[in-house]
Amino acid sequence: MSAHAMDAVTTAMLTIRPLRDGGPLPLLVEPAAGGAPSLIEALPEIRPIVDRHLPVEGGVLFRGFALDGADAFRGFAAGFGHPLLTYEFGSTPRSKVTQGVYTSTEYPPHQHIPLHNEQAYTRDWPMKIWFYCQQAAPEGGETPIADSRAVYRAMPPALRDRFAEKGLMYVRNTGNGLDVSWQQVFGTEDRGEVEAYCRGHGIDCEWKPDGELRTRQICQGTIAHPVTGEMLWFNQAHLFHVSNLEPEVRSTLLELVDEPDLPRNVYYGDGSPIEDEVLATVREVLEANKISFPWQAGDVLMLDNMLTAHARSPFKGPRKVIVAMAEAHGLH
Questions:
Q1: Cβ neighbours of residue 205 under 8 Å, at least 6 residues apart?
Q2: Residues 307, 225 contacting (CB under 8 angstroms)
Q3: How far is it, in rounded angstroms, from Cα 142 to Cα 165?
Q4: Cβ of 272: how many Cβ atoms within 10 Å?
Q5: Quick one: pLDDT at residue 37?
Q6: Which residue in 109, 122, 112, 120 sits closest to 144, CA to CA?
Q7: Alpha helix locations (H) across the chain?
Q8: Which terminus of the chain is less hemmed in, N or C, by CB atoms within 10 Å?
């Protein structure tokens, strides 16, 4: 089945076809007619499909299967052969559901979370990420996705080259009541553990007089996929940059703290400022490549985290989507 074929393929247990007429992402995998096996039961037949298609399409949506809660989800994600990862050096609030399984980012329902590749703001990230929709919001709450290869190709070449050559410097000031605390970010109360983690991951850290922590890390703006070799847009500049804030929030924050003390910001790798209009272009390209579809309760979406970015749409009513990650990869 080619990346752009629209014909369904049926195996003994599964039917495989693109979800949308508009392109191959995501690939939809459903039980073949007459059966609704659990995802765990279907794993032996699912694994070779994922091995073949995830590096091509970048994302697979499993729909119509039985899956009994967070522990079963953990078993499914772990069934691809890699231990599930903890959420280290996190940038957003989330809670542990069970070992290796977390809530999706706990931002207020009215907020939009822009497209991003998980942990692309650092030099270590998961290669695989799974989302399990236990409860679909009655309104909104989609998890839009985008092909990082298409985003890379669509970026103006001069902008793309600048990000590739200069890299990006992410600066974070954790705590001060304005963002997650350093204890949450690093999962420890021990300053020595924080310093050891930073040393091991190429992060400059300094304790400020108020006891809070400033970190700086120079990371990639674009990158080649380690398996397919394709070039990808792979960063979170548009999320970390001060221009991501609503204008009134930005001005209020800058009245409270000096720019170097903002909870988070990003510069070119040489420390020079990234122009607001550059990030506006980045956001336009991401928006133009966004793929959105409604969740159904029981859906599991599996992404190659480098090939495919994800987001969250605002929603109303109850929504429960949990996340697992695996297969650590890094620049060092």
A1: 194, 195, 198, 213, 214, 215, 216
A2: yes
A3: 34
A4: 10
A5: 87
A6: 112
A7: 39-57, 69-78, 148-154, 157-166, 182-186, 191-200, 237-240, 247-256, 276-288
A8: C
**pLDDT score recorded for residue 52:** 95
251, two tokens: 């001005």
**Segments of the chain with pLDDT less than 50:** 1-6
DSSP calls for 147-183:
EHHHHHHHS-HHHHHHHHHH-EEEEEEE-TTTS--HH
What Å distances lie between residue 57 and 50, 85, 97, 131, 219, CA to CA? Answer: 10, 23, 29, 17, 26
Spatial separation of the C-alpha atoms in residues 312 and 139, rounded to whole Å: 13
Q: Is 209 helix (H, G, I), strand (E, B) or coil?
A: coil
Say which residues have a Cβ less than 8 Å from residue 233's Cβ, sequence separation at least 6: 148, 151, 152, 155, 160, 222
* Structure token pair of residue 304: 């190659």
pLDDT digits (tens, 9 = 90+) for 188-241: 999 999 999 999 989 999 999 988 999 999 999 999 999 999 999 999 999 999
DSSP count for the chain of H helices, then E strands? 9, 20
- What amino acid occupies position 216? R
Residue 74 carries which side chain, given as an amino acid letter? R
